[in-house]
From TrEMBL:
<keyword id="KW-1133">Transmembrane helix</keyword>
<dbReference type="InterPro" id="IPR000515">
    <property type="entry name" value="MetI-like"/>
</dbReference>
<comment type="similarity">
    <text>Belongs to the binding-protein-dependent transport system permease family.</text>
</comment>
<keyword id="KW-0472">Membrane</keyword>
<keyword id="KW-1003">Cell membrane</keyword>
<feature type="domain" description="ABC transmembrane type-1">
    <location>
        <begin position="61"/>
        <end position="254"/>
    </location>
</feature>
<dbReference type="Pfam" id="PF00528">
    <property type="entry name" value="BPD_transp_1"/>
</dbReference>
<protein>
    <submittedName>
        <fullName>Carbohydrate ABC transporter permease</fullName>
    </submittedName>
</protein>
<keyword id="KW-0812">Transmembrane</keyword>
<dbReference type="InterPro" id="IPR050901">
    <property type="entry name" value="BP-dep_ABC_trans_perm"/>
</dbReference>
<keyword id="KW-0813">Transport</keyword>
Amino acid sequence: MWRRAAMIGIAVYCLVPFYWMVVSSFRRTADIHAKTPFPSPWSLESYEAVFAPDMGFGGALLNSLIVAATTTAVTLLVGTLAAYALARLTFRGRNAVLALVIAVSMFPGALLIVPLLKLFTAIGWIDSYQAMIVPSMSFALPLTIWNLTTFFKQLPYDLEQAAMIDGCTPFAAFRRVMLPLAAPGVFTTAILAFIATWNEFIIAVTMINDQSRQTATVRIAQFTGAARFDTPFGTQMAAGVLVTVPLVVLVLLFQRRIVAGLTAGALK
């Protein structure tokens, strides 16, 4: 009973902010500070404001999708090959490489912003997609390599050796046998990398000044109200719902694969 009550308490604690964001997004601007659990009356005023032509929110969502999808795809390509090599090849310093990979992921990202800004200004990358994709990869790649290395280590060597006895090259054995077996781990890592890049803010707001290249998280922060110091809470709540819903749908659609990937190797 106490366990169930604790689980319900944790669920309520996690869901209440999202619930309040959804409810507030359906309030009228005049009712935005109301404390009722449901909007009265319901209104789409905030959603209409989000997609007003001068807001540029549709283009910002497309930019977020381009940056997150490209970062995830390139990170998976590089990370999968690197993780497989670290899991299967025996060479001096392998553990040191893994330790270096995880150490890089611990480095505070905010400290890299100024050097990256100076570098990208010098090479003309400011206001470009690569100015967001390359730094995001540097944060997503260590997590990808570490997760997939652990996953590949748990796969039996016998299957790989049997494939090579049947005539496969080492790369063909990896592509045709090992990679399909590692699909839950790869998929889980892809979801985590996509979510981290989709929600990224500090790199995008630093490297991008052109409004047409801004991502959704940056565009939401720059919403302005009718007056100079007026904060459009309803519009920001509606935009927050629109940014969050794709991630929620993604997780709900693939929750079985995600759970399989996270729990793989937990039981013997």
